[in-house]
Amino acid sequence: MKNCYLYSIFFCVLFQISTAAQNKTNHFSELIRDVTGDLNNDGFPDSVIVMMDIINETRPLRLQLFLSQPDGKRKLIVTSDQIIEAMYPLEKNGAYNGYQIPDFFIENGILTMWSEIEKGNISYEFKYQRGNFELIKLHKITHNSTIVIDENTVFTETNFNLITGLRTEVDQLLGSDKIVNKRTKTVLIRPLAKIQDFKFTDKYLY
Q1: Exposed (0-12), middle (13-18) or buried (19+): which is 4, by Cβ within 10 Å?
Q2: Which of 24, 40, 72, 89 could, after both became Cys, cross-link 128 (CB 3.0–4.6 A)?
Q3: In the chain, what's the furthest Cα-to-Cα distance?
């Protein structure tokens, strides 16, 4: 009888732990982004959805990509809970991460994700090829100001074509067309990053 009682307590605790975990991870119920466009150039509308878990205190975000099927239904192709940073991440002790939720655009079969980053913004371009959405291009703009942006602020524009490996950085003063510095190099990254494996911290890799 004592053993039965202990087993009952054990399974009860397991159930509570499992329920608590689900409460923290499985409540992506708030629609944040809903973008429609042709992601795979088949002439049919596909969908990009971003949902937020409003139960979890960190407010995590989930990206989902749906492709239209011949029967008119849409099939879930990608789900990622790591490509977008939570609004109140544990790494910042629950403080606001300081950035807007990324925007998504679909044009000419290319999925673009635009995100704010420290002192600037970054855009990623993903293309559906070989059965995956692969990162093919990156565009980033940052500045060197620590207090106030003025005529002495240097903006750096980075363009990285991951297909060719060509990475170019151009420095310019605010309001000037004159190039202060330009750096070009070839960096081959293989295989190309897949969107389902991409993490929001990967921005530091490029």
Answers
A1: exposed
A2: 40
A3: 84
Look at phi and psi of residue 72 and say left if phi exceeds 0, alpha if psi is from -120 to 50, else beta: left
Task: Give the pair of three-digit tokens for residue 159.
Answer: 């363009």
Q: Could you report the per-residue pLDDT of 138-192, keeping only the tens digit for each? A: 999 999 998 889 989 999 999 999 999 999 999 999 988 889 999 999 999 999 9
Separation between Cα atoms, residue 88 and residue 81, nearest integer Å: 14
**What six digits make up the tokens of 172?**
């310019």
The whole-angstrom separation of Cα 157 and Cα 184 is 12
Cβ(87)–Cβ(61) below 8 Å: yes
Lowest mean pLDDT among 7-11, 46-50, 140-144: 7-11
Place of tokens 């989930």: 62
